[in-house]
Amino acid sequence: MDKIQTPDVQHEESWWQLVMIAYAQLYLSRSLANTLPNPWEKYLPAFKSNVTIKSPTQVQNDFERIIRMIGTPAQSPKPRQKAPGRQLGDIQIKRTRHPIVKKSKNTTVTEKMIA
């Protein structure tokens, strides 16, 4: 979940809040989760042992069933029309261009030390 790249700090903070909420949901629903190993995972030690505490990945694998069991306060999605898109004449603000910073070669540093 750490692959997002955004130039805006506010968007990055919102992303991390969303990630923390998702982990909190997984943590709180770990007692409701069943162990559902894939066919190639059923012989792994994590699935063979009768551990009562589930990992976040195990809970995430069973989360669809948990949501169906508990229900959700959200309404079902409704079909909408095609979005109008950008209005004619809209001006998009371009990002500021920054110079490329390149790593210097070690030879220049050693030449300065010798001189």
Helix content: 40-55%
Please state the structural category. Answer: mainly alpha
Largest sheet, in brief, is:
none
Quickly count the helices.
5
Round the Cα radius of gyration to an integer and report it: 25 Å
Mean pLDDT: 83
Tag the structure with descriptive keywords.
single chain; 115 residues; mainly alpha; 41% helix
Describe this entry's structure for a reader.
This protein starts with 8 loop residues before the first helix and ends with a helix. It is 41% helix and 0% strand. With 115 residues, the protein is mainly α. The chain has a domain at 7-74. The radius of gyration is 25 Å and the shape is flat. The longest helix is centred in the first third of the chain and has 20 residues, at 9-28. It has five helices and no strands.
Secondary structure layout:
Elements: H1 9-28, H2 45-48, H3 56-61, H4 63-70, H5 106-114
